[in-house]
What does this fold into?
Amino acid sequence: MNTYRILQSREKSSIAIKHGFCWPAAFFAPIWAASKGFWPGAALLLTMGVFLNLLSSTARDTQHPALALGSFLAYLFYGFVVGKYSNFLLLAYKLSKGYTVTEVVAAESASDALASVTLSPQSAPASYQS
It folds into this structure.
């Protein structure tokens, strides 16, 4: 089971963000960020990916073993850091866009986490009550 934070907004539907490492972000960072609507993150991750690709191309063209090893280690480090911190950065971005964390639930998937949450008038935050 994973832990998910349930975020709600007055204008948009509820979303669930996993707490912890994100494998899709580690391997497909810009695509993952864009699919979540995290556009600043997608642009930054795409820029970093292009830079790493240029570094790798330079290593291949020069056939310099230290540069090749460095670019490989940079790719590994990039994937690890992005996977570790992507959900936290997505949470911070969504909070800056007006979402609030309403619950923390344990579930197998984000859709299960959202399905397990029912927002009743008593459990809703005061800002959501009319």
Q: What stands out?
A: The helical segments are 23-27, 29-35, 39-62, 65-96, 110-116.
